[in-house]
Specification:
The chain is about 35% helix and about 25% strand. The chain is an alpha/beta fold.
Length: about 180
């Protein structure tokens, strides 16, 4: 349960380990997305739909992408349970889904949320994200080194880093969660 919303998570699936701070993490992402109700939002590496669940009510259109089949299935359950039956959640490799469902169909996104695993997005995903042309990118990372690499590449694609918000999701360890806001231009 996050902010009074119940989520279904696969038995072996990923979910934020620090349940005491996950609500604050959601608040940071929602705040940085700054949705007005008209935007097309892509939640890449969307897991079980954690961020989609809280952004869906503020987005005009909502798309999620998740590589783990069970997590993607749970995302549809979670979104449906909370009234977001119109949301589309794709199972597959993020770069491939961006290519086939967005670039080839000329679907633009206004806001993209990235929450990749520790190894980050990588060059191909960053190129595809930049190609769909979002005004804002909110990048959540548990690995500042791979986030910095990806942010640098986004800067080379015409984006500017506007804000970084660290969250100590892993107290008394060397690990930190960081939410970054990037805008075009």
């Amino acid at each position: 349960i996050v902010r009074e919303k119940r989520l279904t998570v696969p038995y072996r699936g990923f979910f934020q380990a620090n349940v005491a701070l996950v609500g604050e993490l959601v608040d940071q992402v929602v705040g940085m997305c700054a949705l007005s109700g008209r935007e097309t939002l892509v939640d890449a590496y969307g897991g079980v739909g954690l961020f989609s669940l809280f952004l869906g009510e503020q987005a005009g259109r909502l798309f999620g992408i998740e590589g783990d089949r069970e997590s993607a299935r749970c995302a549809l359950i979670n979104l449906g349970r909370h009234g977001f039956a119109r949301a589309e959640f794709f199972h597959g490799d993020v770069a491939s889904v961006l290519e086939h469902e967005f670039l080839r169909r000329r679907v633009k996104a206004d806001v993209v949320v990235l929450d990749p695993p520790r190894d980050g997005c990588g060059g191909t995903v960053i190129e595809k994200v930049a190609a769909i042309g979002p005004e804002r990118i909110v990048y959540v990372s548990c690995n500042p080194a791979t986030q910095a690499r990806d942010v640098r590449q986004l800067c080379e694609c015409g984006y500017a880093l506007r804000r970084l918000q660290p969250l100590d999701m892993f107290p008394q360890t060397a690990h930190i969660e960081v939410v970054a806001l990037m805008t075009r231009g």
